[in-house]
Amino acid sequence: MRESSQKIIIVLLVVWGLLLLGTAEASRIKDLAQIEGVRGNQLVGYGLVVGLNATGDSTKTQFTIQSLVNMMERLGVTVNPADVKVDNVAAVMVTAELPAFARAGNKIDVSVSSIGDASNLAGGTLLMTPLNGADGKVYAVAQGALVVGSLAFGGKAAKVQKNHPTVGRIPDGAFVEREVPFDFGVQSVLSYRLKDSDFTTISRMSDAVNQHFGGNVATAVDAGEMKVQVPSAYRNKVVDFVAELEKLDVTPDTLARIVVNEKTGTIVMGEQVRISTVAVSHGNLSLVINEQSNVSQPAPLSGGQTTVTPQTQVNVTEEEGNLVVMKQGVSIGEVASALNAIGATPRDLIAIFQAIKAAGALYADLVVL
């Protein structure tokens, strides 16, 4: 009786572990797709940053002088442009993203970037800057002290710099003044767009929605879009329906892909990468040149001259090529183990993958950055 109970407990633990394993691989619909129309909007504006410690634009930046003179005239101060020095003022471009469902009075973060020859924006304050959308209308107004998060000090002979001093941010630095019109609650059909289009993923997503809500609520239109009919029980509670739908788990399918960056030597392989039977040989050619200078010193009062005689030593070594056979259908772990066995460096692996792809033995997309 005790042995049977132990067997039952072991079986339950195994089933529970498998369930946890399947759940870990799944992702929420919220993370895989987004509703059409629910998106942010880019904002941009031109402004001035004041209060800099002689690190602003120089007199060569004429548009900064013009902007400062125009601003002073709007404030009722008449100045001569020839008398204006702008070393404590910098012309900047202000960018921000207006999130979906942002209401008038909400605050958003803004980024400030110098467009003149200012050397440092630390300690500056952005003056009131309207932020326009793609339609030319003002949707937000930004103003406030910059957070640069860098330093740059030095003189004519030396300079110390950390991070990037000509770009800063203003947390909650803009007030939303205009809302993007969008009536979400009256929609009866929702369109979900996959972030990465895939037929298998969109099919699994529609099946998960139909199984949860019953009937043919969801329909896959193509590899990147799913139409969802709001059930009658949620007709006046669209927000609750979306919240219930987006927490459903779906296991996405991915393409077999290898991404390599030859500049940094970075290699990223997907789980579905497979190769056919192939033999790989690897050998490195090392060339070491060592040059030394010997000084020939004549005896005292001999009338000779001191000469320098260079000596060059060249050593050429080539590692033996190890031939490794990789069998068909091996997994990503076996591929990595086989390539590590021949002592290949990341840059060598890039060349090896390119050669395997050229031989037609790589069943994956090779993306070179």
In short:
With 369 residues, the protein is of the alpha+beta class. Helices cover 24% and strands 36% of the residues. The chain has three domains: 41-151 and 162-176, no CATH class; 183-250, Ribosomal Protein S8, Chain: A, domain 1, CATH 3.30.1370; 257-294 and 309-368, no CATH class.
Q: Estimate the strand proportion.
A: 35-45%
What is the SS-derived class? alpha+beta
Q: Please, how many helices?
A: 7
For the sheet with most strands, the description reads: 6 strands, antiparallel, barrel
Q: Uncertain spans, ≥5 residues at pLDDT below 50?
A: 5-24, 285-289
The overall pLDDT average reads 79
First CA to last CA: what distance?
Answer: 63 Å
General form: flat
Question: How would you name the oligomeric state of the polypeptide chains in this document?
Answer: single chain
Order of neighbouring strands in the sheet with most strands: 3-4-5-10-7-6
* CA-based gyration radius: 33 Å
Give me the strand/helix succession. Answer: HEHEEHEEEEEEEEHEEHEEEEEEEEHHEE
Describe the 3D structure.
This protein has about 375 residues and is an alpha+beta fold. It folds into three domains: about 40-150 and about 160-175, no CATH class; about 185-250, Ribosomal Protein S8, Chain: A, domain 1 (2-Layer Sandwich); about 255-295 and about 310-369, no CATH class. It is about 25% helix and about 35% strand. It has a six-stranded antiparallel β-barrel with strand order 3-4-5-10-7-6. β4 (about 90-100) and β5 (about 105-115) form a beta hairpin. The longest helix has 24 residues, at about 1-25. The chain is flat, with a radius of gyration of 33 Å. The chain starts with a helix and ends with a strand. About 20% of the residues are buried. Mean pLDDT is about 80; it is low at about 5-25 and about 285-290.
